[in-house]
Amino acid sequence: MNGPASLRHAIGVFDSGVGGLTVLQALRRHMPGRDFLYLGDTARAPYGRKPAEMVWKFSEQIANFLCQSGVGAIVVACNTASAVALPELARRCPLPVWGVIEPGVEAATRATRTGHIGVLGTPATIASGAYQKRLEARGFRVWARACPMLVHTVEEALADSPEADLLVRHYLEGRKEIDTLVLGCTHYPLLRGAIQRAVGGRVTLVDSAEATAQTVSRALGAAARQGGGGRVAHFVTGDATAFAHTARVIGGVEGEIAALDVMELARAA
Amino acid sequence: MNGPASLRHAIGVFDSGVGGLTVLQALRRHMPGRDFLYLGDTARAPYGRKPAEMVWKFSEQIANFLCQSGVGAIVVACNTASAVALPELARRCPLPVWGVIEPGVEAATRATRTGHIGVLGTPATIASGAYQKRLEARGFRVWARACPMLVHTVEEALADSPEADLLVRHYLEGRKEIDTLVLGCTHYPLLRGAIQRAVGGRVTLVDSAEATAQTVSRALGAAARQGGGGRVAHFVTGDATAFAHTARVIGGVEGEIAALDVMELARAA
């Protein structure tokens, strides 16, 4: 493995691309003393329209690679990968593994008063039914909508634009009565303004990045405050310069970025 | 160089990703006997929002790589790269190099009757002024509009969807009176339906993929019919499986796909 020294006992965080950086930021706010190793699978991004088997295979390869890198825990910072690969990944992996869906579900159930919850996500996340099944099993009424264009709206630096308003209104048209809306994709917190305008002030938005950071830091307890010096290293399967450029829409990248051969990753399976 | 045997004297065709496949298809229709080597820089795609210097550097690396691979000519099958890198690339390169902009400009000047021409393209293409300068220098009136979301609309398999209609209408709002509209991005021919609906039947759409294939095949003359057995090989800097999946929206990939290390490409500079 070339690139930044692997941070042993760091928390490994992975996503298809830059979206998971919103989760990384939240994790670092909650656990400033921990080291993090972020992996963005930009050579194969986006995951949101890809078949479930493909997303499963990519997720498994990355989890194996992170295990071999010596991380102490894994956060699947991608709703699509969490929807498709958990809980199976957690069963197969010798380390603690968290996704972003369970924490989002928990936060939504705490936020709702009417019991009517909405979920926005990528086509693969919504098609998996991961949010809907968990919420419905607990007696909540769910309205869910796949929003294929919203990741791109963020990555084109258009979170605050007429395009964002047009598309967000389109995806929220015809929604059922809800009082809580889960932003079921790591990019969507950047569209909070457009989404809140479209649903009105009385609907509570649930940010799964923040919910996940709370869950992980609570689960790690005292360990959350140990494990390094607050360093962060990034691996990307695509080009490092291109990753840094796209990442600016999510506040940029702190720490080193190293290229990781996607074929090396495939061999980790 | 690993992967498919390099096709010596093939025509090298490159794009940031899958969009240039529309140009490859047109080239193969016009020159069915030629071999083609297609390079999709998917590890660094999309180019449309990237700074001109970055797109220039990527284009130069790819052109050098194609020269070293033994191709006999190069087609820059990407409007963004053509806008930024031509004519400089043609000056530096020992082979004939064609872009998609000059042929599109020529086709538009032949199509217009009123002399009022519109151009749609990526932010980088429109910001470069590549179409506008060439058309205005020849006395045409130009209305140009950057359409950052349209590439993604195609790649999400939404060319025929409410999202496509919404976005196309948005980008064409407030346009000047035009009788000809250049589809200044290789993805846009797939949005022909939505675009024609938005502008009405009296506006002629100019497809630069088709115009480029005509230009190249005319320029090569008798040589257009020689140079191989109609084979095609693909190199991609991102993942081959992911490329094949995305390419389905453009009719899929014929021929072998091999992964090319983006760092090897950078060393070709």
What does this structure look like?
Two copies of one chain form a homodimer. Chain A has 13 helices and ten strands. Chain A is α/β, with parallel strands linked by helices and 269 residues long. Chain A has two domains: 11-99 and 211-268, Rossmann fold (3-Layer(aba) Sandwich); 101-209, Rossmann fold (3-Layer(aba) Sandwich), CATH 3.40.50. A six-stranded parallel beta sheet of chain A has the order 4-3-1-2-9-10, with helices on both faces. In chain A, strands 6-5-7-8 form a four-stranded parallel beta sheet. In chain A, helix 10 links the parallel strand 7 and strand 8 (204-207). The radius of gyration of chain A is 17 Å and the shape is globular. The two termini of chain A are 15 Å apart. Chain A binds chain B through residues 42-44, 49-51, 54, 148-149, 152-153, 156-158, 162-163, 166-167, 170, 237-239, 241-242, 245, 259, 261-263, and chain B through 42-44, 49-51, 54, 148-149, 152-153, 156-158, 162-163, 166-167, 170, 237-239, 241-242, 245, 259, 261-263.
Summarize the structure.
Chain A has 269 residues and is an alpha/beta fold. Chain A is built from 13 helices and 10 strands. In chain A, helix 2 (52-68) packs across helix 3 and helix 5 packs across helix 11 (208-220).
Q: Mean pLDDT of chain A, as a whole number?
A: 93
Structural class call of chain A reads: alpha/beta
Question: How many structurally independent domains of chain A?
Answer: 2
Write down the CATH class of the largest domain in chain A. Alpha Beta
What can be said about the biggest beta sheet of chain A? 6 strands, parallel
The count of strands of chain A amounts to 10
For the record, the CATH architecture of the largest domain in chain A stands as 3-Layer(aba) Sandwich
- Would you identify the regions of chain A where 5 or more consecutive residues have pLDDT less than 50? 1-5
Main-sheet strand order of chain A equals 4-3-1-2-9-10
Secondary structure tally, helices of chain A: 13
Question: Roughly how many Å apart are the termini of chain A?
Answer: 15 Å
Query: Would you list the SSEs of chain A in sequence order as H and E?
Result: EHEHEHHEHEHHEHHEHEHEHEH
Helix content of chain A: 40-55%
Question: Which pair has the most extensive contact?
Answer: A-B, 29 and 29 residues
Instruction: Write down the Rg of chain A.
Output: 17 Å
Shape of chain A: globular
At the fold tier of CATH, the topology name of the largest domain in chain A is: Rossmann fold
What would you call the quaternary organization?
Answer: homodimer
Which percent band covers the strand fraction of chain A? 15-25%
